[in-house]
Amino acid sequence: MLRYTQHDCIVVTYMKLPISLPNILTSVRIALIPVLVAVFYIQFESHYLVAAGIFTLASVTDWLDGYLARRLNEMTPFGAFLDPVADKLLVAVALVLLVEVHASAVLAIPALVIVCREIVVSALREWMAHYSSQRSVAVSMVGKVKTVFQMVAIIVLLAFGPDVQSLPVMIGYVLLYAAAILTLWSMYLYLRLAWPDLSSGMTND
């Protein structure tokens, strides 16, 4: 709500957010993040498994909100902004939780690669939207496979805790490293696409 006072007259403007089922699902995904954190730290039987379940539920809403937005023709600018933000917040928070509890460079390295890549690509997308002839980039197959590996790895690592001797945890490590390698490759594809404009020194006022 914005308030402006002029000559003893108050004008109140309300910001109305676009309400739709896909946007509600995206908002639910964000709301599940503090729930994930709380469950992860509260010590009770199977709390790791419950945390994995919450992350899985949030991940399902990621697919579902996109599907419904296309199916119901409810793709909005607000949804296009909020959806990737929700995804990045969810993944970043989950990786931070895992790095803390595993306390190992073996997990910290791919986690850092994934988080740093998201920062670089987000900045690159914003730059491309303003200055590049390539205004938008379609999601590649590499990006889709990376997302699958990343989500499955996080679910497995959340579910089984820091038991590095466990076969599922070792599989989770392998999948996370595969996701990190693919995330670097997808970043390279973005940079290659934008490089002609980046290297030209072009400006757009």
Characterization of the model:
- This protein has 205 residues and is mainly alpha-helical.
- The protein has a single domain (20-199), classed as Up-down Bundle (Four Helix Bundle (Hemerythrin (Met), subunit A)), CATH 1.20.120.1760.
- It has helices at 21-41, 47-71, 77-102, 105-131, 141-160, 167-200, and strands spanning 2-6, 9-13.
- Strands 1-2 form a two-stranded antiparallel ribbon.
- A hairpin with a 2-residue loop joins strand 1 (2-6) and strand 2.
- The protein is globular.
Outline of the structure:
With 205 residues, this protein is mostly helical. It has six helices and two strands.
Main beta-sheet annotation: 2 strands, antiparallel
Task: Note the overall shape.
Answer: globular
Structural class: mainly alpha
Compute the gyration radius: what is it?
Answer: 20 Å
Question: What distance lies between the first and last C-alpha atoms, to the nearest angstrom?
Answer: 31 Å
Q: Tell me how many strands there are.
A: 2
